[in-house]
Each structure stands twice: as structure tokens, then as C-alpha cells.
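Running this now, will post back.
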Amino acid sequence: QVQLVESGGGLVQAGGSLRLSCAASGIIASTNAMGWYRQPPRKQRELVAIITSGGDINYLESVKGRFTISRDNAKNTVYLQMNSLKPEDTAVYFCSFRNYYGSSVRSSYSDYWGQGTQVTVSS
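Update: finished.
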């Protein structure tokens, strides 16, 4: 089992910045991935950014150049620095953690989720 504790989020004006943090604890596999998803009002959840234990990173196209994901492996913590925020970034942001049972990202896995944190960007 993995427990996730999120922090950050809140209300910010368009053009502003916020930083989200998520600390993982429990049984952490050596091959894993930490990331952020978001769910805007009345829309489906979407992947915002993800970073693997090997350092591979992927971003949602609409946040490239504005958001930066990073991780501190010693603290099992992932960060999402969000700059130049837009009203369309308004959503509940969820931290995710994926434990892989093997040494490859093609291995079977288990997913864990944070409780979600609200990010609201006013125009």
C-alpha cells in the first residue's frame, strides 16, 4: 500500500503561479512513476504530467512550457510547479503513484491516488 499526502493548490489570478507537492509513503517499488492528473468541472480526468523513477517525463500538451514536474527520490515526493496559469487550468488536481512489480514500465502495476486539491484560476 502507498499513502499520498498532497499540499498546495488554492486560488490565484491568471498569469500567477502555484506549486503542488505530494509525498508518498508505504511500500515504494524501485520502479515507479509519480504524476499529476486533473479533473476540470464537468470533464473527465486527464493526465497533466508524469515522471518515472528513471527520470522520463511526459506532459499534457496544453501545459508544456508552463508546468514543470520534478521529484525528490530521497523524500518520495513529487512537485508540480505551475506558472502562467490560465482559467482553463482550473480543476481538482490529483497526485498519482504507480508501483511497478517488475523492473520495467511494461510490468504489471498498482495505482494509488491522493485526495485531490482544488486549483482555481480567476480571469
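The mean pLDDT is 96. More later if anyone needs it.
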